[in-house]
Amino acid sequence: MDLTTGYFWLDTLIKVAVVLGLVMGLALPVIYAEVKLMAHMQNRVGPYYAGGRFGWAQPIADGLKFVQKEDLVPREADSAVFRTAPYVVIMAAVATFVVIPFGPGVVARDLDLGAFYLLAISSIGTLGVLMAGWSSANKYSLVGGLRAAAQLIAYELPLLLAVLAVVIQAGTMSLNGIVEAQGAPLQIGSIQVSLPYILTGQIVSFVIFLIAMVAELSRIPFDMPIAESELTMGYLTEYSSVRFSMFFLGEYASLIAFSLVVATLFLGGYYVPWVSEAWLNAIGPLVVFAKGALIVFFALWIRSTFPRLREDQLQTMAWRWLIPIALVNVMVISFFKVVI
Amino acid sequence: MTDNGSPDNGQNGNGDHKKIRFPFPGLFKGLAFTGKYLFKKPATVFYPDEQEIPVPRARGVIALDTEACTVCMLCARECPDWCIYIEGHKEEQEPEEPGGRVKVRAELDRFDIDYGLCMYCGICVDVCPFDALFWSPEYEYSEHAVVDLLHDKAKLTDWLATVQPPPPLESS
Questions:
Q1: What is the Cα–Cα distance from A202 to A210, expressed in whole angstroms?
Q2: Whole-angstrom distance, CA of residue A41 vs CA of residue A219
Q3: What pLDDT was estimated at residue B10?
Q4: What's the CA angle centered on A204, arms A199 and A205, to 5 degrees?
Q5: Searching chain A, which residue's CA lies closest to the CA of residue B30?
Q6: B134 bridge partner residues
Q7: pTM of the predicted model as reported, rounded to 2 decimal places
Q8: Alpha-carbon span B103 to A179, nearest angstrom
Q9: Pairing relationship of beta strands A191-193 and B61-64 according to DSSP bridges
Q10: For residue range A39-86, what is the model confidence (pLDDT) as tens digits?
């Protein structure tokens, strides 16, 4: 890890390349998994011919198709904002990867305020969505953008409170610190074990975080901002070509990022008991990805199972149920933190 | 009607008292359902590679029995899309014995159905008084050009071979 110390720009460049490669390299398999798993859950086969076997090349073919299309900007649109919005979204999604630890040393930047940074940066994506909705000069886009804003504000709170509960229990905001806190051995009876937070009192936070995460990503039970049947495609209505695929990629990148965050905050992150730090750096990424893949699978499963909620039901769920439960949860966690 | 005032239901218009139902069992039932299908073989038939076998009474295509047709034009007149084209002429048959009456018989010259227009309503099949039209489950007659979907008498007669026997009558 000390190989590049002193070479700040080289260091940064390598990290940027690795993170970007990671995002692109992971988004395509996730897109493929989504179409394939969803197809099988709906008694279909899904892509079958692209690439020869099992349609493995379908996401690549889709990407190439998007690149070939004409990049349209509506005449009435606020051109500059319209053109920047997709890049804001994908930038926010990629920037999340900065603080996710893949091993004790394998992290782009171990911020002391990691959890805070995470929540802050995920709100910038919302800004991009709002920019897209407003600048498109289209009523569907506008309604979609406003719905997205309302939804993301509503679900930012339970998300934040769920993370807060974890931060209180861990006593640190650094994501590396949170993983280490989960690795700390617990004395149960006569044996010492280290358990992830989902098993040591954070189950409520976990469920709240999962629900708020799906809402924050505006994926299917909570996809009112793009609701095809009511708003054609919501804030994406006017987008085509590369810009559309940027939104698409951003959505999947943030799905992966949030799944890795869940793995880090609640499922123990890269930590494996009885393994030295050097080995943790090697196998840590695989462990985190495996745990993240579980969460991604769950998100895809939810998507192919549940119907879309109504706008008022969505708001009711956040303000009336999730936020009070999350507040009580934070109080209980802090109580036990002080007592134990 | 509202016995123990449940303020959570803003919209119980029919006056029935609703209880707040815990949504979770239903959610898990749904997840179990889709999870079960994930491991089942999909229902998809890979059509060009595999033949799909339609049910015997499927409305694939309309077949014609030229022997039974009397050129009465009922089908062409009842067709909502006007997609049946019939032409015919009358032929006089010599009387079997001298002094007998001259019989007139209708000969079918043209019987075309434009499958580009047909909406598969089956009114022609129902209306035919001499059972000259039948439903056949045959479905592979797509063409590259729309005009080629106008199939003629010979093609319609070929499809007669694919017509399935009618189901047995119900015992009353």
A1: 12
A2: 17
A3: 44
A4: 95
A5: A305
A6: B63
A7: 0.77
A8: 101
A9: unpaired
A10: 888 888 888 888 878 888 888 888 888 888 888 888 888 888 888 888
Q: Which of A139, A121, A122, A142 shows the shortest CA–CA distance to A130?
A: A142
Q: Which two tokens stand for residue A226?
A: 């793009």
Tell me the chain B residues in contact with residue A42 when contact means C-beta distances shorter than 8 Å. 34, 37
Q: What is the pLDDT of residues A290-326, one digit of tens each?
A: 888 999 999 989 888 888 888 888 888 888 888 998 9
Given phi > 0 = left and psi -120 to 50 = alpha, else beta, which region is A133?
alpha
Statement: residue B8 has pLDDT above 80: no
- Domains of chain B, start order: 61-162 (3.30.70.3270)
A198 vs A206, A294, A327, CA distance in Å? Answer: 7, 14, 18
In this complex, is the C-beta atom of B46 within 8 Å of any C-beta atom belonging to chain A? yes
* Residue A255 CB partners (closer than 8 Å, separation 6+): A30, A217, A219, A296, A299
Determine the distance in angstroms separating the CA of A53 from the nearest CA of chain B, rounded to an integer: 14
Q: Who contacts B159 (Cβ-Cβ below 8 Å, separation ≥6)?
A: B61, B62, B63, B64, B136, B138
Give the C-alpha separation, A326 to A308, whole Å: 23
CB distance from A42 to chain B under 8 Å?
A: yes
Q: Is A306's CB within 8 Å of B40's CB?
A: no
Give the angle A236-A242-A243 at the CA atoms, nearest 5°.
35
List Cα–Cα distances, B26 to A296, A299, A305, B30, in angstroms: 22, 17, 11, 6
8 A C-beta contact, residue A235 and residue A141:
yes
The pair of structure tokens assigned to A18 is: 């690795």
In this model, does residue B84 exceed pLDDT 80? yes
Mean pLDDT, chain A, integer: 84
pLDDT at B2: 40
Q: Which of A37, A43, A302 sits opposite B43 (nearest CB)?
A: A43
A6: left (phi over 0), alpha (psi -120 to 50) or beta: left
A48–B37 C-beta distance less than 8 A? no
A263–chain B nearest CA distance, Å: 21
User: Is some CB atom of chain A closer than 8 A to the CB atom of B29?
Assistant: no
Give pLDDT, residue A5: 58
* Cβ atoms of residues A209 and A167 within 8 Å: no
Q: Which of A121, A108, A118 is nearest to A163 (CA)?
A: A118
Out of A39, A301, A306, closest to residue B35 by CB: A301
Instruction: List pLDDT tens digits, range A94-147.
Output: 888 888 888 777 777 778 888 888 888 888 888 888 888 888 888 888 888 888
**Nearest Cβ partner for B38 among A40, A45, A48:** A40
